[in-house]
Amino acid sequence: MNTNASAPITPPEPSDAGHSGQPIRSLQYMLNQLAIHNDVLTRLAVDGIFGERTLEAVMVFQRENHLPVTGVVDLTTWNAIRDAYVHVELMYGFPPALNVLPCGTYTAVEGQECEVLRIVQAMFGSLTKVMSNFRPCQMNCCNDGETYKNLQEVQRLAGLPVTGILDRSTWAYMVQLYQALVTRS
Questions:
Q1: Model pLDDT for residues 84-133, shown as the tens digit of each residue
Q2: Which of 9, 46, 106, 124 is deepest in the core (most CB within 10 A)?
Q3: How far is CA 159 from CA 98, 162, 163, 179, in A?
C-alpha cells in the first residue's frame, strides 16, 4: 500500500477499542511507516481494527512526541502522526512523478526550443552513463541533433512511433527509464 504524502488523510473517530475502517487503516499504515525509521515505535498489522496493538502504538507515539498519553487519537494526535508521516515520506519515500510538460497535448518537434528540453537533456546526460543507446547532447533547450536522435531511440525502445518529437508518451517512458536505470541503481 503506497499512500501519497500530499493526499489528505482524514482522522478516525475517537479511538476507543472496537473502531474500524479505512481511517484506522490509514492510522496503522502511517504508524508502521514511522516505526520503520524509529525502533521505539510499534509495528502493526494494517487490518483496520483499533485493537490493543494499535492502542499501544498510539500511546508509544504520544509518549515519544510529548503528547498526553491517552491512547485516544484526537485531532492533536492525528495531526502529529500525519505530520511525522509526511516528514518521513519526504525524507525516505519515493518522490512523486515529475510532470514537466505544460499541458496534456504538449509536443516539442524537431528544431523547437523550450525550457522543458533542458530537463530532457539532463536526463539523457545521466542515461548515457548507463546505456550505450544514447549519446551526449548539448544543453541548449532545443530538440535538435543528439537530443532529437535520443528521443527517437526512446520511442524505438518503448515501441512508440519513432518521430523524435517530445510528447507525453515519450516523456512517460523516459521517466520510467530514468527511474529504473539512474535513480534506483
A1: 998 888 888 776 666 777 776 788 999 999 988 999 999 999 999 999 99
A2: 124
A3: 22, 8, 12, 19
pTM for the model: 0.53
What nine digits make up the cell of 109? 518537434
Residues near 164 by Cβ (< 8 Å), separated by ≥ 6? 110, 143, 148, 149, 151, 152, 155
- How big is the CA angle at 166 (ends 123 and 142), to the nearest 5 degrees? 70
End-to-end CA distance of the chain: 23
Largest CA distance in the chain: 65
The amino acid sitting at 47 is: D
Is there a contact between 19 and 74 (Cβ–Cβ < 8 Å)?
A: no
User: 33: number of CA atoms within 13 Å, CB side?
Assistant: 24
